[in-house]
Each structure stands twice: as structure tokens, then as C-alpha cells.
Design goal:
With 272 residues, the protein is α+β, with helices and mostly antiparallel strands. It has two domains: 7-146; 153-266, Lipocalin. The chain is 40% helix and 31% strand. It has helices at 8-61, 74-106, 121-134, 140-146; strands at 65-69, 153-162, 168-180, 184-191, 194-205, 211-221, 231-239, 245-253, 259-266. Strands 1, 2, 3, 4, 5, 6, 7, 8 and 9 form a nine-stranded mixed beta sheet that branches. The longest helix has 54 residues, at 8-61. The protein starts with 7 loop residues before the first helix and ends in a 6-residue tail after the last strand. The relative contact order is 0.11.
């Protein structure tokens, strides 16, 4: 029999008898949605913790030394990241708190505390800062706002050495590998005769002329190089505005009193 054919009183009675079933289905549907939300949050929390650990480990593998960028304030960037982290953490924590409170009132399940770990302001800030240090600052739009040039990559170089009387002695060639993050950098030079690694560095914005990298280094000769000794030195390289070439000078001391010039060309496949 169709429901429309019944009297209003009968229809009301049938509706009232159906209401608990409909209400039960609605409650089950809501609980299922919340259960899926909690499960997703728990898995997301675990994945975020694993990603945080993995980024930290990979970051330690490329660890170098700090470098300064003249005219750039890292504290200002840190304050922006802190502001974003607080907003994100506050929103996520509020949503998670509402869901947890509702489920606790229903006595539906106990929420594992692990889902709150990545929602703290400190955790969000740490994760965002590591991502910014490793990846975000390199993005072209962010890089122009941040003001830190990306000179990381492998560079082929040719050099000319001069003695103390400024007479050219010999030409040499090699490769420079620059490993750079937002906070740290390493300049590693390899030639047929020796290797050197930077121990301090700074970058200066030269306007239309490009960016100047100024760094000090420690050089170690390879076995069998009798004319070379361990020494320290200083180098300045001016990178062009397109950051595909660079030219500079260097001088050594405390073990090898020489100077010279270098020309760098970024190798293919390492374009910034």
C-alpha cells in the first residue's frame, strides 16, 4: 500500500516508527565518517613524523657551514615561517580537538595521542623550516622574494696560477661542486693535484653585475704532489646575473704563497 493513500494519523505513526531507524543510520554514518577522519589523521601523523626524521637525516648528509648573505635578514624569514606555523597548527589543533571531543563524549573510541604530535606549533615550524631550507627557497617566485641566489651545482673551471712576483707559472683545470641550502653551503674544489673545501663563506648582491661569493678554504694536496703543501686560502667569485658563468681570483698563504684567477662554467643538467 502506498503511504499517500493512508490517513494523516496513520502516516504520522508510521513516520514516527521509522524515525529511530533513520536516526540510527545517520548516527552510524556520522561515526563512520569520524572514524575515517581519525584513521586518516593517525596515518598522516605517522607519515609526517617519518618525513620529518627523513628530512633531518638527509639534511645532515649535506651539512656544510653557515654562510651570510649581505643585506638579507634570516630572522625576518623565520618570523614569517613562525606566523604561518602558528596559524596552521592552531587550525589543525582546533579541528582535531573538536573531533576528539565529540568522539570522547560518545564513548566511541580512545584517541591515540600520537595524532597530536605534528599539530604543535613547534613541530609545524620545524617541518616547514626544514622544507623551506631544502626546497622552497629555491623556487623561482620565492627566490626573488627571499633574495638569496641559488648557485648550487657542478661547475667546470680553468685556472691560472701566479708566483709571488705575479709571473704566470702554470694553468690547471678542475671542478667545483657547490652544495647549498638556505642556511648552509659547501664549496668543494677538485683538481688533478689537490682538493679544497670551504670553511666560511658570504654572498654579496652586486646588482646588475650578479652575485659575489667570498669564501675561505683549506686545501690538501693529493699523495705524490711534492711541490704542494697543505694550506689555507681565500677566493672571490663573481657569478653573472644568469648564474651560468663566474670569474674570480684567489690567493693562498700559510704553506703556499701563490695567487691566481679562475673561470667557471655551469655544467649542463645543473641549471638553477
Amino acid at each position: 500500500m502506498r503511504l499517500e493513500a493512508l490517513s494523516p494519523t496513520t502516516r504520522l505513526a508510521i513516520t514516527e516508527r521509522r524515525s529511530p531507524e533513520v536516526e540510527l543510520k545517520c548516527n552510524k554514518s556520522s561515526l563512520n565518517i569520524l572514524q575515517n577522519l581519525v584513521d586518516f589523521s593517525w596515518r598522516a601523523a605517522v607519515l609526517l613524523q617519518l618525513a620529518f626524521i627523513r628530512i633531518q637525516v638527509s639534511g645532515s648528509e649535506m651539512a656544510g657551514h653557515e654562510y651570510s648573505v649581505v643585506g638579507h635578514s634570516r630572522s625576518r624569514i623565520g618570523s614569517y615561517i613562525a606566523l604561518i606555523s602558528g596559524s596552521v597548527a592552531g587550525g589543525l589543533t582546533a579541528l582535531a580537538g573538536l573531533a576528539i571531543s565529540f568522539l570522547d563524549k560518545l564513548g566511541y573510541m580512545n584517541i591515540p595521542t600520537i595524532i597530536v604530535w605534528p599539530l604543535t606549533g613547534g613541530g609545524v615550524f620545524a617541518l616547514l623550516f626544514i622544507l623551506f631550507d631544502r626546497f622552497i627557497w629555491r623556487w623561482p617566485r620565492f627566490r626573488s622574494l627571499v633574495g638569496v641566489p641559488d648557485i648550487a651545482g657542478v661547475w667546470s673551471l680553468s685556472g691560472q696560477t701566479y708566483d709571488q712576483d705575479n709571473n704566470p707559472t702554470f694553468r690547471w683545470s678542475g671542478k667545483i661542486t657547490i652544495t647549498q641550502g638556505y642556511e648552509k653551503i659547501t664549496v668543494h674544489l677538485k683538481s688533478a693535484q689537490s682538493e679544497s673545501k670551504s670553511i666560511s663563506a658570504a654572498i654579496v648582491n652586486e646588482g646588475d653585475h650578479g652575485y659575489r661569493l667570498i669564501y675561505s678554504y683549506r686545501n690538501e694536496p693529493k699523495p705524490g704532489e711534492r711541490e704542494l703543501q697543505s694550506h689555507i686560502g681565500h677566493c672571490e667569485l663573481l657569478f653573472g646575473p644568469d648564474r651560468q658563468t663566474a670569474e674570480g681570483i684567489y690567493f693562498n698563504g700559510l704553506g703556499r704563497v701563490t695567487s691566481g684567477t679562475m673561470k667557471l662554467t655551469r655544467e649542463l643538467g645543473n641549471a638553477a
